[in-house]
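Below is how a single chain appears once it has passed through the pipeline. First comes the sequence as given, then the structure the pipeline wrote out for it. We keep one example in the README because the format questions we get most often are answered faster by looking than by reading.
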Amino acid sequence: LAPEKTGVANSAPVITSSPTTVAFVGSTYIYGVQASDADDDDLTYTLNVYDSSGDEVTNSSFLSFGAFPWPATTLSGTPTADDIGVYTVRIVVTDGTDAAVQEYSLEVKQS
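Resulting structure:
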């Protein structure tokens, strides 16, 4: 993150939404992440997903931000039977100087 300018205070973004913590095989999971910034700075959203052993899941096959037709701030995807399990989802919203972090467990179950 960028250092703050001398004498200029920056307000960190705030994530104000709560996620759904269960997803079902074959059903679209949708979580519209809502965040705000008191300074009206542009916000950037990033996602990290970790499996139950704590290893980062690269190229998550069922979770991403901004997949069509959803906006860039919506986390969505459709898990398959191969995705059954519990994941740690980490969302970071940054204004370029400060960040807000939301971390939660997401359980993928058979429908």
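The chain has no helices and nine strands.

See the next section for the split statistics.
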